[in-house]
C-alpha cells in the first residue's frame, strides 16, 4: 500500500486497534440473553445478531436495532437510567457495566500488527485519529497503553456533544478528518464493522479498509470496503 497518497489514517478502535470487539460481543451476549430469558423468549441472541444489528453503532442504537429485529418495544428512557431499568437506555447501561467489569478484570493488549502499523505511520508523518462509537474508547486506549499514539479521539461522547450522527453515517469520520485539517480524499478509514465500512463508503474518503475480524471479507466489501485485510500489518509497505 502506497501511504504517500494519504495524509491521515482514521481508525475504529474495537476490533481494529484492540481486541475489545470480543469483549463487547461477550458483554452484549450476556446482557441480551439474560434479558430474553427473563422475558421467556426462546430464540437466543447470537454473534450473527451482533454483526448485523449492533457492531460499530452507538450503544443505544445497537439496543434499539436488535430489539426491533425481534419486534420487542421498550420505552427509550434516558442515559441516566439505572442498569436494571427496562428501557433502551437501561439495557445499554447494563451492557456497559458488564464491559467495564471485564476491562477492569482482564485488561487489554493492542493487536501487534496494529501497533506496528501505527508506529510506521507516525514515523511517516501520517496523521492518526481514533473514531469510535464507544464512549469507553479513552479508557480502552489507556488500558492498552496507546493513548499517546493518536492525535485525536472521537468517541461516542464527543459525537453526542457535537450532534454528530453515529455510524453508518459518515459524520464522525468526516469530523475527525476536518479536525486534523486533512481533506477527506486524503484520508483512509480503517474499520472492522459493517456499519463502519458503510460510514466510510458514505463519505468521500480516499480509501476504506475493511479489517476482517469475523464479519467476513465478502460482507465487508459488499458494505463498502475498497480492500480487506485480516491484520493491519498487511498494510505496511
From TrEMBL:
Q: Which InterPro entries match?
A: B-phosphoglucomutase_hydrolase (IPR010976), Beta-PGM-like (IPR051600), HAD-like_sf (IPR036412), HAD-SF_hydro_IA (IPR006439), HAD_sf (IPR023214), PGP-like_dom2 (IPR023198)
Q: Name one GO molecular function term.
A: hydrolase activity
EC number per UniProt: 5.4.2.6
Family named by the database record: Belongs to the HAD-like hydrolase superfamily. CbbY/CbbZ/Gph/YieH family.
Identify the species of origin. Answer: Aeromicrobium alkaliterrae
Protein name from the UniProt record: Beta-phosphoglucomutase
State the needed cofactors, names only. Mg(2+)
Keyword match Plastid: no
NCBIfam families listed in its UniProt record: HAD-SF-IA-v3, PGMB-YQAB-SF
Presence of keyword Magnesium: yes
Source domain of life: Bacteria
Q: What class of enzyme is it?
A: isomerase
Q: Which Gene3D superfamilies match?
A: HAD superfamily/HAD-like, Putative phosphatase, domain 2
| Reactions catalysed | beta-D-glucose 1-phosphate = beta-D-glucose 6-phosphate
* Record keywords: Carbohydrate metabolism, Hydrolase, Isomerase, Magnesium, Metal-binding, Phosphoprotein
